[in-house]
Amino acid sequence: MLSLFSKKQSQKIEYPLTTDIHSHLLPGIDDGVKTLEESIAVISQLAELGYRKLITTPHISSDRFPNTPDIILSKLAEVRTALEERNILVKVEAAAEYYLNEALMERLYQNEPLLTFGKNYLLFETNFMVEPFALKDFIFKASSAGYQLVFAHPERYAYMTVEKAADIRDRGVLLQVNLPSLLGYYSKSIQQLAYKMIDKRLVDFLGSDCHNANYAALAKEAHLNKYFVKAMNLPLHNHNI
Ligand SMILES: [Fe+2]
User: Is the model's pTM score more than 0.90?
Assistant: First the structure.
């Protein structure tokens, strides 16, 4: 049961979003949290918001963040141990946010196993300014290989429109909107596109894209946004993983 009150009405807020699928909470391997202590602190902040499961998704991009499944899973083990030692009960799992480039296409061609979550969900992002030449080819190849693609924050790309988002979704890709987008954190136009996507029911997942304590605070604020409530009335896949 969705029950949201403004701060003025009540201090008790019941948060219905209990699974997050996009964040950078493993220490020191991308542009997210830097230390184990910061990781634990931010995870605790998210747990206080009502999250019970956090699927964290470090960047994998051959140039900037050359992470591997082994690096990610060994960091995950470290964080889980620290959480257990502190008796913090939130469940943390890991996948990755893959950057679409030639190296990723090559991995796909070579059948190299990629880190997924839930129902073989593969989270990916692209260049922020220019639509990658290979985007549609990637969608076809990855889907044919059995991956269920999840497009990270489509509203944030300069090349994105609501029509293009609908076309990509029609190709079988699930769309994940970022919580900070709902607040206008990145820009007004990104906020507007996120709102339009929610109005047109083109959103399949919400994600915090949490990188640090500041983003955890943004997630808290976003949970009170009217478009968050609207999105929560869509059949989000967050609830089924
Ligand atoms: Fe991200």
Answer: yes
